Amino acid sequence: MRHQEVELLAIGAGPSNLALAVAVEELAGSELAQDTLVVEQRDDVAWQRGMLLPWTTSQVSFLKDLVTLRNPRSAYSFVNYLHSVGRLDQFINLGSFSAYRMEISAYLAWVAHSLQHVRVQYGRRCGSIRPHHTADGPSHWSVEMSDGSTIVCRHLVIGGGRDVHIPEAFAGLPRDKVIHSTEFAVRVDEIGTDRPLRLAVVGGAQSAAEMLTAVHQSFPLAHCTMIMRSIGLQAYEASKFTNELFYPSFVDQFHAALPEAREQLLREMHRTNYSGLTPELLESLYRRIYLDRLAGDERIEMLTMRDVVDAQLDGGEVAVTLLDRKTGGMTQHRFDKILLGTGFASAMPRIVQDLARSAGVADISVNRHYRMNLPAGYGATCHLQGVNESTHGIVDSLLSVLAIRAEEIVGDLLAHRSTPPVLVFADSTLTP
């Protein structure tokens, strides 16, 4: 279709918007569900596509799926997925609360294909979002897709995640020399096994360590150098007391906290999610290094407390200049490939920033129910998922809050819902 009109459009078919889709079906009734569309730029649904390695697991309990904390009896639970594919008894026998990443990814795809009323359309990338003005003011959004088609909606939910962070030093390198963790699994075969390679892994958290483990295992001729700013690899902070701060109910306390209290919470909780490794991966990686030393073949090198100052292509190699913060000295190292475990940009995603500019919003913020604060007179609404850490805590980017957040957004939508008017375009008339 060149033009579509829906009441609710969700951008991105990841965990956030799939949880929203299920909540719409279970809480809002078939009328709104049938007028809800989820668009996904890829041709399928996959979770953490770039790091879907066979042995990687989730760091949260399988009970924190799309629905269970909101509705334990839902047909869309992870347990029901396991039952439907005949693997429930095997998973129980595994004796673990942590599911494999590939299994969670398959669960999300199963949910997307099991929705009764909400539609999911694949291969549709959002290009721009602009307010659509009518006689009653900006009561809708006009979303232009990359193929030139347009979707008009009254309610918009953006859940595509943050933009990838590429450190400035590596931004100018050719694509074939740099692989970010978000595309590692689909590009790792580009590395090749035909000759000894020098591989640099930049970063000191879970994704960087997983890439290091994978290339050390898959490329026996490769020398792997891990470059990090920290003093060394550290385990996640994962005590049961700390984990209580990931309860959906804690969002209320965080949102109501004083600014200085929020800053302390974010600072002290950083290692619960961003700058650590699972104890199992730490143990496994240390044993790999130990066994290499035992065999006299040390293929893993750790460069700690190093800042990347520069990276230039030189004769087919990448020359990386590092500052050693212990000594103040500069060194240059040459690599064949750079693997970036550098995560995501802290700023709001580009698509949200562009929307805010078009709506006349200088300072992007959301209310307690994740609805963007728009200028007076807006009949259209926009909710943001997964990018509200400053107001809702670190949990906003994690699976832990999916089910309850979706319930809150749907409740807010229902409270502000009204029937969109007929919109007349130059070449068509669209009705709900």
From TrEMBL:
tRNA processing found in the keyword field: no
Keyword terms: FAD, Flavoprotein, Monooxygenase, NADP, Oxidoreductase
The record's catalysed reaction(s) read: L-lysine + NADPH + O2 = N(6)-hydroxy-L-lysine + NADP(+) + H2O
Q: Name one Pfam family in it.
A: Lys_Orn_oxgnase
Give the EC number.
Answer: 1.14.13.59
Q: What class of enzyme is it?
A: oxidoreductase
Asked if the record carries the keyword NADP, the reply is yes
**Pathway the protein contributes to:** Siderophore biosynthesis
Query: Which coenzymes or cofactors are required?
Result: FAD
* Highest rank taxon of the organism: Bacteria
Where would one find the signal peptide in this protein? none
**Sequence similarity:** Belongs to the lysine N(6)-hydroxylase/L-ornithine N(5)-oxygenase family.
What is the protein named?
L-lysine N6-monooxygenase MbtG
